[in-house]
Specification:
Chain lengths: 101, 502
């Protein structure tokens, strides 16, 4: 399974840093650190904001596996994000539930 | 303290929306955001689009339309019927859409966020087309797209600050639930508080009544109260009422009323830019006077617009023929235009619009409206008053010499609603009354008012025959004719009174 995430941010706001670190944790917990992660600063690429229709930042877009899905905010509830993006049904979910025993 | 120096008074940006500059004394505050609130269907989006469209096409200012509800293609399509080619403006680089309409899938939120992405999009679009005008429609929709209302409030405030920094004149629309309740849903006005305009769409006595109210404009004066508006295929029109300035020049040129006797009573005819009201009960000769008025103008090669609200064209022609006047040749020569409509066919705002359109197209020297009181029956008193004021101020501005007839409800006379609302605006008023003298019905006419001129003060008797109208001698020894309760004073009483002052 290949994972590809895009995280849209604007500038240096602290919630951008929180989102990046939460995304890295998500990658570790649910994607075996295999995900491709792009962090895109819209302040530098405003055309992308229009094209991708990003209003809220941070916005996380799961590009792969399909379907494409979005979550907005600093991703503070990692498990909720994982459920929303359908990441719990994978191998990592079993690992995760084993570890809780 | 430097910042307080060199501050200038707020400038205005004209909108091009008909009548709006009158109300706001120049337009919207330049470089500021104005909140436009209204219930659904009150015309917010049309107003906002027209603001952009006219700004671009009439004042050569580029614009950005940020939509949070409809998709851009739908907006472009919706105003095609008004012949506003927004897609053309986009192609020419004068208009840019920012699409903030909702995603099909609900978007999950977790933790803190802001709307910097949207702000980046707006900034980018404004810079790209060098926009001076921005519309955000509708801002309330953001509260449906995002769950955290506190964040959205803060971000809307931030958007207005960004717009101010970019020195663009902006309209933000927001919905309200009740016509006369809280200003807007979610209390948006509390943080975009400088300028608020309210559009209303009220069902009043079975008629839809659309109005606009300038609630507040910081640092500037504006017209108070609600003003009726119409929305048609040429956009929004705000009907000028008290806001219209009586700036027309008056003139000394007199025109004939079409009847030598009436000309004599008015000391030589009425002024060519005046409004002449003829009021009387049914059958008293109003249509005859308006027919003579029309004929006199056509004989002078002046164009006349005749608006009939009670009779059909055939009836009008037949009536005129019975007095030896043939309308048809004048119609064929383009001197006369007869428009017959029943008052019930549309609301008064639309009637007013139709009359204005006719005047704009036909450019008449004279206007005859027979009768204006027919309009009373399709509207509320307030609505009717607005119609009358809107109409008279328009014909005054266009300097169309106008004759209105008004039917009084009682045979003997008495006051009608029309008289009450129109009399202060008209320049000449003639009252026609039935007078019962010794068991015989006779007709009386009086000029009770004529601005800027002397006029006959007596109540005179008049007759109608196949040749028209003939004014005779003043009534002697009859009082209170005008009030509709004629009473004969006895000869002895007259003699007594005469004695008293000798």
């Amino acid at each position: 399974m290949t994972f590809h995430f895009q995280l849209y941010i604007v500038g240096e706001h602290y919630h951008n840093q929180v989102a990046i670190s939460n995304l890295q944790n998500l990658n570790k917990l649910y994607c075996q650190n295999q995900a491709k992660i792009e962090v895109i600063d819209l302040a530098k690429y405003p055309e992308i904001a229009i094209k991708a229709r990003v209003m809220a930042t941070p916005t996380l877009v799961k590009v792969k596996p399909s379907p494409m899905q979005r979550v907005i905010g600093d991703l503070s509830d990692i498990e909720k994000v994982a459920i929303r993006l359908g990441l719990l049904n994978t191998h990592s979910h079993i690992l995760n539930s084993n570890s809780s025993y | 303290m430097d910042k307080l120096d060199n501050l200038q008074a707020l400038q205005k940006t004209p909108t091009g929306i008909e009548g709006f500059e009158h109300l706001t004394i120049g337009g919207l505050p330049k470089g500021r955001t104005t909140l436009l609130v209204g219930s659904s269907g009150s015309g917010k989006t049309i107003f906002a689009i027209e603001f952009l469209y006219r700004g671009i096409t009439q004042f050569n200012r580029s614009g950005v339309f940020v939509t949070f509800e409809e998709r851009a293609p739908d907006i472009v399509r919706n105003v095609k019927s008004m012949h506003w080619q927004l897609d053309e403006l986009v192609r020419q680089g004068q208009l840019l859409f920012v699409d903030g309409s909702p995603e099909l899938d609900p978007v999950e939120e977790t933790g803190s966020y802001d709307l910097s992405g949207l702000i980046i999009q707006i900034k980018y679009a404004v810079e790209k087309v060098n926009a001076k005008l921005v519309v955000l429609d509708s801002i309330g929709s953001l509260f449906h797209q995002f769950n955290n209302a506190n964040i959205i409030r803060r971000e809307i405030f931030r958007i207005t600050e960004v717009l101010k920094e970019m020195n663009v004149t902006a309209i933000m629309t927001a919905e309200r639930l009740e016509e006369y309740g809280p200003i807007s849903r979610y209390g948006i006005e509390e943080f975009v508080a400088d300028n608020v305009i309210v559009l209303r769409n009220v069902l009043h006595q079975e008629k839809i009544r659309r109005t606009i109210q300038i609630l507040k404009v910081r640092g500037s004066s504006h017209a108070q109260g609600e003003f009726p508006i119409t929305i048609s295929d040429s956009g929004i029109k705000i009907l000028p009422l008290s806001a219209i300035q009586l700036q027309q020049e008056s003139s000394d040129n007199r025109v004939t009323t079409g009847n030598a006797d009436l000309d004599q009573m008015t000391s030589g005819g009425i002024f060519h830019d005046s409004i002449f009201l003829v009021s009387g009960p049914t059958g008293s000769g109003k249509t005859l006077i308006s027919t003579m008025f029309t004929a006199a103008a056509c004989k002078n090669k002046e164009r006349v617009l005749l608006l009939a609200y009670e009779e059909s064209r055939d009836q009008l022609l037949r009536n005129a023929r019975s007095w030896g006047i043939d309308f048809e040749p004048w119609e064929n020569d383009g001197l006369l235009r007869i428009v017959c409509t029943y008052p019930e066919t549309m609301g008064l705002e639309d009637h007013l619009l139709t009359v204005r359109k006719e005047i704009e197209q036909f450019r008449p020297h004279r206007l005859v409206m027979d009768s204006i009181s027919a309009m009373e029956r399709v509207a509320s008193v307030r609505n009717f008053r607005e119609f009358v004021i809107g109409l008279t101020s328009y014909v005054k501005k266009e300097r169309v010499c106008s004759l209105f007839t008004s039917t009084t409800p009682q045979l003997s006379g008495g006051e009608s609603i029309t008289e009450a609302h129109i009399s202060t605006i008209t320049d000449v008023i003639a009252l026609l009354r039935y007078v019962e003298v010794r068991g015989v019905m006779r007709r009386g006419i009086a000029i009770i008012k004529m601005r800027g001129s002397q006029h006959e003060k007596n109540v005179r008797e008049f007759n109608i025959d196949g040749q028209g109208l003939h004014v005779g001698l003043p009534f002697k020894n009859v009082d209170n004719i005008i009030l509709g309760i004629p009473a004969r004073t006895t000869l002895s009483e007259v003699e007594q009174l005469g004695d008293m002052f000798e």
